[in-house]
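STRUCTURE REQUEST FORM
Protein name: DNA 5'-3' helicase
Source organism: Desulfofervidus auxilii
Requested output: structure tokens
Priority: standard
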Amino acid sequence: MLSEIFGPNGILAKKLPNFEWRPSQLVMAKEIAIALDKKEKIIIEAGTGTGKTLAYIIPAMLSGKKIIISTGTKSLQNQLFYKDIPLLEKIFGEKPQAIYLKGRRNYLCLWRYQLVSSKLLIQSNEMKIIKHWVNNTKTGDIAEVPVSPEWKGWADLTANAEQCLWHKCPFWEICFITQMKLLALKAKMIIVNHYLFVADMALKDKRNRQVLPSYEAVIFDEAHQLEGIISEHFGLQVSNLRIAELIRDISFLFEKRTPDEIRNELNALMDKNNKFFDLFTNLSGRKSLKEITSSATFNQSIDILKKVLERIIKIVQKSDASPEVKENLKDRAKRIKDDLGFISTQSDPDYAYWIEKRKRNITMGCSPLRVDHILRNILYPAVQSIVFTSATINTGDNFFFFKEQLGLPPDTKGVLLASPFDYKNQALLYIPPFMPDPNSTDFLKAVIKEIIKILYISKGRALILFTSLKNMKETYEKVAPQIPFPAIIQGEQSSPKLLEIFKKNIHSVLFATASFWEGIDVPGEALSCVIVDRLPFAVPDDPLMQARLNLLKKIGKNPFWSYQVPKAIIALRQGLGRLIRHRQDKGLLAKLDPRLFTRSYGRHFLKNLPPCHITRDLKDVEKFFKTF
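Status: completed
Returned output:
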């Protein structure tokens, strides 16, 4: 049956005008069909251009099973629901029963909307637009509203799982999330992203609640992201924002004007919350909590914060809110206090403890060092058919690293499908000679010189990826004035806006870091060159990374070879994977890190890169660009 669909003269070839027959796509579809039928787990690395989305949604539909498809990015989630699934109707004459689910912060909370609008707490043009939209929307999806997602008022009009009253809410029956859950019960295919899927796993585990219905199989696309997302959701976090939200929510609950006495006390509690987190205003990035918890000031401040939470519980009792609302608020205060106690004592060796500053939000948290046991205890017993796929899973070790990370049995089947692209003719890898070591003070200066040379040859049209914000900014400041091409840098505008500018102006140069290493798709001439400044090893002083490396040492493993190198290989492959997206694309991959040749581990990176020609001579780069 699948050969008749994916074959060179099959249904897809007849129905889709631009269809290209790819043997690897048929192999992937057959492997997935077998895994779904036999209730097995399978890992499939499908190189860029395989056509993997159709290779899994068609077997998923034909299986007749209730299947969740989870993606690493919203862009892929959108592609699946708005492009690929409608194609199935064109191909087979029937539309699959599919639904697109987002995290709950993407939907208006009717209860919170009533609280806010009834007290007229927000009088703005945005609120007027929202009031009109509320009367017409069927989904409650705030993406429908012509109001910026960055608008601060959304925090008061949406609810996270902690704020939700669930079945005790007076709006439960007509709640937009309840309605989406009912639709999901009827659907055969549920499209989510990893954040929602893992958040739902954590919700079931910690609070015995769920948003996603029961399902028979799950397909994870961009599966290489799972470890980090699971670690984030199965940890604990206490932030100035989380406590401030609780205090602000309490102020909504006094049906009439908040009494002066209560308002003054809430303001005082907010001040104490701010004073505690003000201790860390000079913090930059994420640091180990151990570095700051030894001081008497910290421990005294923790005690004060706990008393703030205890006082909040007593204030809630004075409100004229319903018993359900009071219970929710008291439960939230107690949970924050418990989380604060667990994080601040740092007593469980299975967690890494950290503190992080992002803009004005300061968070203390802990993250599990390993996630394999989480999947073995929660997911694997509940569902037998699981497909893990991505363009970058293998690290030259027959999927051993991936299996170990996610707690999969060593005999789990792994299938490696090469990209159908002709990398030897479509791409060239340039590694400049005589570059100083990345730890040398001369390295950045040499990087800047090489980038300028390359950009003149490529006529811009480049994405330059950095492993640190500092190096990105310094390079941009030095390079931008010396090139005749528009230079744009991450952070000046939102990522979608930057991509839009980059795509429109063919000769532009985009300077970017972490979030641009994967998930972006710029086919065609606008992206003809990807430059990577150095091998993307994770920041060594990150507390979670440090704790994981120490754990590996304790159990007798070499942390560099068993964890840091595989993670960096996957990151590098993702970054370079931005270049060739279609058969017609051509481009240069420039890797400026000399360690590919000067260190023993360099060959492991090289053998995991696309099979293109390698040069160390800029004249070859000039010749290459003359071919297109």
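Reviewer notes: The first strand starts at residue 41 and ends at 46. The CA atoms of residues 574 and 592 lie 16 Å apart.
Form closed.
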